[in-house]
């Protein structure tokens, strides 16, 4: 009973408890704001990285997987798989209208299937906007003037053929490939050259290889840029170019082709029907089916990428048993040789994501260590309070209060300070994070202070969501830290000699 009475009195009659609660409040708010913003930034990166990849990939680079249509049918028949789509990935060179060249990753896709797995259509940038972005007060965004239906060129990977009529194959490039644009603080991009890339012709060059891995030449073709995509992940937006899978199959000689007779000997001569000698041409003994280097797979609802990877591996192993006479060079590699991985473990992206996760964890740990100052501050304040209340402690012990009762008095006091400080700190953090973009915009207008510059961070908006689970962890930790800070002074008070405490001056 006396603990509750004294706790209320100490909280309302002294300035020191307010300082302790303020320290807890600031530490809780600081850690929660950093965790929310950095964690939100990481989540945005992960969400962007998953785009254009699906959940799980089956890859056999360069040579490609034959009979991939049957493999996709087997995959989509499994209830754990929503959709699957073939792609071809190759390194190529893209020549721009400015006579510049870029090394790019050329990806052949089936647009509808690719969108079903990755959400590709949602990433097309040049689409008509009815209303400007919130920060675009002067309506300078070029997308406001684009005619409706323009994005269909990017969805079909075609462009109108004004000479012959109909349409011709086209490409869609990442928004950062051309280096034509600069990002505006209003959230959109503007052209450095006054024109956007869609509508211009580019030349794509790739190196086809034979079944033995040797380069058989160079294939270069001109395509019109139908649109550009933007995932938000620079590594993708600055390096990838999409084209129809059939066109890339032809360029890489991965389309269906006749298999020549291996017994054919060059230089043989035969007499034709007219009696004129002519060289013996190789005869076709079969057809090599078209191949795809990757199969992208989207998991059904509730299926994790890791669980899907195991299921895909099982389905792939069963599928290879249909072609016992075909090996890796024929386009049916065994399950032990083919690469099956989740999107997070994709080569190249895995290292990048791991680095961002480690940096986020490091920043969070540093701020947690800084927040331990609150524990030391509470310890110092409570140590001072125990010294100040020495006579009060002696009186309590003299009238029968137990050591545990006295210790609980100060621990309860610390807990009350921790709860009050954590609640206020959590509310402060939520307010700042929720309104962080308007606050940041105001700082830019009033003071010229731009911390989150989209020209550097790529994302135009600062993450502004506080996850309830993170808020609960930080606020509970704030209360625990306050109790820990009060622990040593509480033990000191509990073990005071009541006689010496009453005689304390």
Describe this structure in a few short sentences:
The chain is an alpha+beta fold and 505 residues long. The chain contains 16 helices and 18 strands. The protein is 44% helix and 19% strand.
Can you put this structure into words, describing what you see?
This protein is of the alpha+beta class and 505 residues long. It has three domains: 2-46 and 354-502, no CATH class; 54-255 and 290-345, no CATH class; 258-289, no CATH class. The protein has helices at residues 2-13, 16-50, 68-76, 111-118, 152-156, 234-237, 245-251, 305-320, 349-371, 373-388, 390-398, 403-434, 436-447, 454-457, 468-494, 498-502; strands spanning 56-59, 65-66, 81-95, 101-109, 158-160, 167-174, 181-183, 189-191, 201-206, 219-229, 240-244, 257-260, 269-271, 277-279, 284-288, 291-292, 294-299, 339-342. The strands form five sheets. Strands 3-4-11-6-10-9 form a six-stranded mixed beta barrel. Strand 5 and strand 6 (167-174) form a beta hairpin.
Q: What keywords describe this structure?
A:
505 residues; 16 helices; six-stranded mixed β-barrel; alpha+beta; 19% strand
Tertiary shape: elongated
Strand content: 15-25%
Number of helices: 16
Low-confidence stretches: none
- Total domain units: 3
Q: What is the straight-line distance between the termini?
A: 28 Å
What number is the mean pLDDT? 80
Proportion of helical residues: 40-55%
- The radius of gyration computed from the alpha-carbon positions, rounded to a whole number of angstroms, is 34 Å
Question: Which strand order do you get reading across the main beta sheet?
Answer: 3-4-11-6-10-9
The main pleated sheet reads as:
6 strands, mixed, barrel
């Amino acid at each position: 009973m006396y603990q509750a009475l004294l706790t209320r009195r100490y909280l309302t009659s002294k300035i020191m408890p307010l300082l302790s609660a303020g320290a807890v409040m600031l530490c809780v708010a600081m850690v929660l704001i950093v965790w929310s913003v950095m964690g939100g930034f990481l989540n945005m990166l992960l969400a962007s990285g998953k785009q254009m990849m699906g959940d799980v990939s089956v890859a056999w680079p360069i040579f490609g997987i034959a009979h991939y249509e049957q493999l996709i049918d087997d995959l989509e028949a499994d209830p754990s798989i929503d959709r699957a789509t073939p792609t071809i990935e190759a390194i190529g060179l893209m020549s721009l209208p400015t006579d510049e060249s870029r090394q790019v990753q050329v990806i052949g896709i089936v647009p509808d299937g690719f969108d079903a797995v990755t959400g590709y259509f949602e990433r097309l940038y040049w689409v008509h906007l009815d209303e400007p972005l919130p920060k675009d007060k002067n309506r300078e965004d070029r997308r406001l003037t684009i005619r409706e239906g323009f994005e269909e060129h990017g969805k079909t990977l075609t462009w109108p053929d004004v000479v012959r009529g109909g349409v011709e194959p086209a490409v869609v490039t990442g928004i950062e490939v051309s280096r034509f644009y600069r990002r505006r603080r209003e959230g959109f991009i503007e052209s450095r050259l006054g024109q956007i890339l869609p509508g211009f012709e580019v030349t794509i060059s790739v190196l086809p290889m034979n079944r033995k891995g040797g380069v058989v030449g160079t294939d270069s073709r001109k395509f019109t840029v139908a649109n550009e995509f933007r995932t938000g992940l620079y590594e993708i937006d600055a390096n990838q170019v999409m084209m129809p899978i059939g066109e890339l199959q032809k360029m890489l000689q991965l389309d269906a082709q006749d298999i020549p007779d291996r017994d054919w000997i060059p230089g043989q001569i035969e007499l034709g029907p007219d009696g004129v000698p002519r060289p013996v041409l190789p005869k076709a003994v079969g057809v090599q089916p078209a191949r795809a280097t990757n199969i992208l797979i989207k998991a059904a609802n509730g299926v994790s990428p890791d669980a899907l990877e195991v299921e895909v591996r099982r389905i792939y192993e069963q599928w290879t048993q249909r072609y016992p006479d075909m090996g890796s060079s024929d386009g049916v590699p065994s399950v032990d040789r083919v690469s099956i991985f989740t999107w997070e473990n994709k080569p190249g992206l895995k290292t990048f994501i791991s680095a961002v996760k480690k940096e986020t964890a490091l920043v969070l740990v540093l701020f947690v260590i800084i927040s331990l100052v609150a524990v030391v501050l509470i310890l110092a304040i409570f140590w001072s309070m125990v010294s100040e209340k020495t006579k009060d402690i002696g009186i309590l012990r003299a009238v029968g209060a137990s050591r545990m009762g006295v210790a609980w008095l100060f621990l309860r006091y610390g807990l009350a300070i921790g709860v009050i400080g954590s609640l206020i700190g959590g509310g402060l953090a939520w307010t700042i994070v929720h309104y962080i973009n308007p606050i940041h915009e105001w700082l830019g207008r009033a003071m010229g202070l731009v911390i989150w510059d989209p020209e550097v961070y790529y994302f135009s908006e600062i993450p502004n969501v506080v996850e309830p689970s993170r808020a609960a962890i930080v606020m509970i930790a704030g209360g625990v830290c306050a109790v820990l800070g009060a622990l040593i002074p509480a033990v000191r008070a509990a073990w005071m000699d009541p006689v010496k405490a009453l005689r304390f001056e």
